[in-house]
C-alpha cells in the first residue's frame, strides 16, 4: 500500500490511576489505527484492550477495503466471545473495553467504534466528532457499564456506557464513512483526552500543530498539566497533501 498519510500515537497511565488499561495500535503498513480503553473499575481492563490491539495487529489486509472491514468485525466478534468466556472462568462480572478505529482506503476513510472512545476529524479548519458516544445520559467524567457500579461514585447526571467489547452476547460495531481529502487530520482518543480539554481546545491545538507527532505531544502536555484523572491515549493521522 502506498503511504498517503503520517501518524503518531501515545498512551500513558495519567496522574491518578495506578495502571494503564488503554492500548493503541498504529499499523501504517495496512492503514489501520486503533485506540482501546479497558473498562476501569472492572477486572482486567488491560487484558481486554491488549487482546484487541494484539489480534488486530496480526490481521493481514487482502482484497478490498470491505473485505478488510469484514475481517476486523469478525475478529472483534471473536474477542467479544472470548472475553465473555474468560469472565465466566474467572468468576467476574465483566472483562471489557471500548474501541475506536480508523481504516484508510484510496477512496474513503472508515471509522468504527464501540463505546465512548472518540474519533474527531479536522478538515477545512472545522473540527467534528465523527463518532457518537454509546453512553446513556449527558457528558460525564465517569462512565460505567450497565448496572455495574463504577470505581468511584459518579457525579449527579452522569451516564451509563451502553456498549463495550466483552459486555454482551451480541457485539454491534457502528461505522461512519469520511472522505480522504488531503490535509485532513483524524484524532482517535480515549476519554482521558476529552475529560481534560474541550472540543474548542482540541480544535485550536489541531490548527496550530498540524503534524501528527507535534499534535500528539501537545495534547499529552495539556492533559498531564491538568488533573490527568484517567488513562490518556491518542492516535493522530494526517492525510498527506
How many separate domains?
A: 1
List unreliable stretches of 5+ residues: 139-157
Structural class: alpha+beta
Corresponding CATH superfamily: PPM-type phosphatase domain
Beta-strand fraction estimate: 25-35%
Architecture (CATH level 2) name: 4-Layer Sandwich
User: Cα-atom Rg, whole angstroms?
Assistant: 17 Å
Q: Tell me the strand order in the biggest sheet.
A: 1-12-11-6-7
Q: Largest sheet at a glance?
A: 5 strands, antiparallel
Tally the helices.
Answer: 5
In the CATH scheme, the class would be Alpha Beta
Average of the residue pLDDT scores: 89
- What overall form do the CA principal axes indicate? globular
Helicity level: 25-40%
Distance between the termini: 17 Å
Query: What name does the CATH topology carry?
Result: Phosphatase 2c, domain 1
Please write the string of helix (H) and strand (E) elements: EEEHHEEEEEEEEHHHE
Describe the structure.
With 241 residues, the protein is α+β, with helices and mostly antiparallel strands. It has a single domain, classed as PPM-type phosphatase domain (Phosphatase 2c, domain 1). 28% of the residues lie in helices and 28% in strands. The protein is built from five helices and twelve strands. The protein has helices at 45-57, 65-90, 191-194, 199-208, 212-225, and strands at residues 5-12, 22-27, 32-38, 97-104, 109-114, 118-123, 126-129, 135-136, 160-161, 174-178, 185-189, 232-239. The protein has a five-stranded antiparallel beta sheet. It has a five-stranded antiparallel beta sheet with strand order 2-3-4-5-10, covered by helices on one side. A hairpin with a 4-residue loop joins strand 2 (22-27) and strand 3 (32-38). Helix 1 packs antiparallel against helix 2. It is globular. The chain starts with a strand and ends with a strand. Residues 139-157 have low confidence and may be disordered.
Amino acid at each position: 500500500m502506498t503511504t498517503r498519510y503520517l501518524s503518531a500515537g501515545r498512551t500513558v497511565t495519567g496522574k491518578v490511576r495506578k495502571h494503564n488499561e488503554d492500548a493503541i495500535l498504529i499499523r501504517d503498513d495496512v492503514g489501520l489505527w486503533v485506540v482501546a480503553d479497558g473498562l476501569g473499575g472492572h477486572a482486567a481492563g488491560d487484558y481486554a484492550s491488549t487482546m484487541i490491539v494484539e489480534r488486530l495487529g496480526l490481521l493481514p489486509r487482502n482484497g478490498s477495503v470491505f473485505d478488510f472491514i469484514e475481517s476486523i468485525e469478525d475478529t472483534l466478534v471473536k474477542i467479544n466471545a472470548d472475553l465473555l468466556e474468560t469472565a465466566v472462568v474467572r468468576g467476574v462480572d465483566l472483562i471489557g473495553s471500548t474501541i475506536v478505529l480508523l481504516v484508510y482506503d484510496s477512496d474513503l476513510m472508515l471509522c468504527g467504534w464501540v463505546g465512548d472512545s472518540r474519533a474527531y476529524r479536522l478538515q477545512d479548519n472545522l473540527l467534528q466528532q465523527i463518532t457518537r458516544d454509546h453512553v446513556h445520559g449527558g457528558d460525564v467524567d465517569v462512565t460505567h457499564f450497565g448496572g455495574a457500579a463504577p470505581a468511584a461514585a459518579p457525579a449527579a447526571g452522569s451516564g451509563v456506557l451502553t456498549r463495550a467489547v466483552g459486555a454482551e452476547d451480541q457485539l454491534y460495531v457502528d461505522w461512519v464513512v469520511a472522505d480522504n481529502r488531503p490535509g485532513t487530520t483524524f484524532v482517535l482518543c480515549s476519554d482521558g483526552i476529552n475529560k481534560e480539554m474541550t472540543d474548542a481546545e482540541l480544535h485550536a491545538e489541531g490548527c496550530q500543530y498540524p503534524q501528527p507527532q507535534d499534535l500528539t505531544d501537545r495534547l499529552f502536555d495539556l492533559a498531564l498539566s491538568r488533573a490527568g484523572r484517567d488513562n490518556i491515549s491518542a492516535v493522530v493521522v494526517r492525510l498527506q497533501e
